[in-house]
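Re-running the complex after MR caught last week's input typo. The corrected sequence lines follow. Everything else is unchanged.
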Amino acid sequence: MSELDALREQVFRVQVDLEHDLEGLSDPEALEAFRVEFLSRKGRLAQLFKVIGTLTPAERSEAGQLLNALKERAAASFSARRGVLDAAALAARTATERADLTLPGPCHRLGHLHLLTQVRQEIESIFLRLGFDVASGPEVETEYYNFEALNIPASHPARDEWDSFYLDDGRLLRAHTSPVQVRVMEKTPPPVRIVCPGRCYRRDSQDATHSPVFHQIELLWVEEGLTLANLKYVIELFVREFFGEGYDMRLSGDFFPFTEPSVQVHMRPRGQTKWLELGGAGMVNPAVLTGVGYDPERVTGFAFGFGLERMAMLRHRIEDIRTFLANDLRFITQF
Ligand code: FA5
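Corrected-run output:
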C-alpha cells in the first residue's frame, strides 16, 4: 500500500473516530479533551499533516486537499457541538437561576419628617384654615427687635429672662419669636393676622423642660375691636384642634412688657395634677403699636408665643425635651 493510500485510510479513520467521539460529548471538560486529542498542535490531525513531508510532490496536492477538508469538517463539527453544549448549559442555568420578579425587593428604610416638623406643619395648617398667614423672621436679631421695639429697654429687669447668645457685632440669637411681630407690623398696615413658627435660643440651663435651642410659635392679630375674649377664644379653638378632647387649659395672670394685660397658658392631660406651661399671651401693649406707627386708639391686638416642644411633649406624653435633640432613631421613628 502506498503512503498516500495509508494516509487516505487514516484520514477516514480519524474522521470516523472524530464524529463518533463528538456525539458522546456532554460537558465542557470532555469537549476540551476532544480538542486536545484531535485539533491541538500535537493532536491527531497535526500528526497527519506531518505525513505530507514524506510524500512525493505529485501525491502532496491530493494529500493536502484531503487533510484540509478533514480539518475544516473537524472544526465545523467541533464548533457545532460546542454550540449545542453551550445552549444546553444556558438552558440548565436559566431553569435553576430563574428570577422571581414577584418577590419583594430589598427593603430600604424610608425617612420621614421629624416630630417637631410634623407638629409645626400641623399648627400652621390649623391657622391657615383660620385665615392667618405664616410669617418668618431672622434667627440672628438686633437688640432693637428682640427687646426695645417690644418695650423692653436696656435697663429693664425683664431682659434677664431672655438672656441670649450675643455676637461680636452686638446682634444676638433671638430669644423668642416676638420680634417678628414688630417686623411684620412695620411693613403691613392693619389688619394683621399672622403666625410665625421658628427657632429660638436662650442661656437656660438644660433640664427636662428647657433647652438652649427650642422652637416657638408666635401669633399676632391686630384689628379694630379685638379684646381679651377674642384671644381666649382663639387659644381655646386652637388647643381643641391640636390636642383634641381630654386636656384642661388654664389662663392665669402674668407680665410681659409687650402685652397688657398678659396671661400665661398652662395645659395638662385631664385627670393629671401637673400643669405644663405652653407659653405667654396678652393684648399687644399700646406702646408697641405706637412704635410701629399704628394708632392704638383705633386698633387693638393680641399675641401669643407657645413652645413647640412643649406642645409635642404634652400631646405625645414625652417626658424630657432633650430627647428631641438626641438624634436617637428609636425615638424618632415612633412618630
Ligand atoms: C415669651 O417668650 C414671650 N415672647 C411669649 C409671648 C408672646 C407673650 C406674645 C406674650 C405675647 P416665655 O419666655 O414665657 O415667653 O416663653 C414662651 C414659651 O416658650 C414657654 O412657655 C415655653 O413653652 C417655651 N420656652 C421658653 N424657653 C424655653 C426653653 N429654654 N426650652 C424650651 N421651651 C422654652
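None of the earlier attempt is carried over here. Residues 176, 178, 202, 204, 210-211, 214, 216, 256, 259, 262, 277-282, 303-305, 307, 309-310, 321 surround adenosine-5'-[phenylalaninyl-phosphate] (CB under 6 Å). Strands lie at 133-134, 140-141, 172-173, 192-201, 213-223, 247-256, 259-269, 276-284, 300-307.
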